[in-house]
From TrEMBL:
Enzyme class: translocase
Signal peptide residue numbers: none
EC number of this enzyme: 7.1.1.9
Domain of life: Bacteria
Family: Belongs to the cytochrome c oxidase subunit 3 family.
UniProt-recorded name of the protein: cytochrome-c oxidase
Membrane topology of the entry: Multi-pass membrane protein
Domain Heme-copper oxidase subunit III family profile residue range list: 2-286
Residues passing through the membrane, by range: 12-31, 38-57, 77-102, 152-169, 181-199, 219-247, 267-285
Amino acid sequence: MSNASYYVPAKSHWPILGSVAVGLLMVGLGYQLVYGSATLLIAIGFLSILAVMGFWFRDVINESQLGLYDSQMDRSFRWGMGWFIFSEIMFFAAFFGALFYVRTFAIPWLGGEGAKGVSALLWPDFIAQWPLLNPPDSSVSGPDNVFSPWQLPLVNTLLLVTSSITLTISHEALKSGYRKLCRNWLAGTVVLGTCFIFIQGVEYYEAYQHYGITLEAGIFGSTFFILTGFHGVHVIIGTLILVAMLVRIIRGHFSDSQHFAFEASCWYWHFVDVVWLGLFIFVYVV
């Protein structure tokens, strides 16, 4: 197939720069967890990721606006986004799997139940329960208390569910040609996402200052921050993507039939919302 019928993107340095930026952030986070003094490296990594995302988005947008993409390229984008979301599903499945393994197998075994109940010989006074406020090893301090699911977690759940509704209305408005309506509902979605991020920050502050829920608070603290923390990062990324879509709508980009970038951002946001529902049920409620 020739380049006339299938657009071949020019060589790009953004993938390798993006990898370097993510690597800097991960090294910084790892160093921070171990030594507690990598704020500058974390900031550099995070800002580098934002810069790469911005410049990479710019190049793709310019190519799209020049009319370089055809139906085959559109299918490529759709398959790529589909596989990306599938990889994200597997990413969170691993963390949910760790949580279920601990709650369903490891803790009961340490309590003397199940096929490996002999593990109870290690800590005979251990009481198997979840949330695990008293880890079996006395050198590890569990949390003082846990969050009520019907306060901040419920507020955040309502915010994200509402944001999926507002984003769907915005998408339908775009498909019907109502650009002003699309813009307004999309702006509302961005506000809801920002509110979620703020409330999650408040919850983390409360966790450390008043509940004793930290990364050092046994398996409960570890699973809590891994699941809610990575989800929070996804919400931040999703909000930034929606901001980019809002700017494009304001600038007159997209049509009622050609707007896959907007549609892909909707896919991503709805996926993040569904993950949160799982978190709300299995981390906070059950």
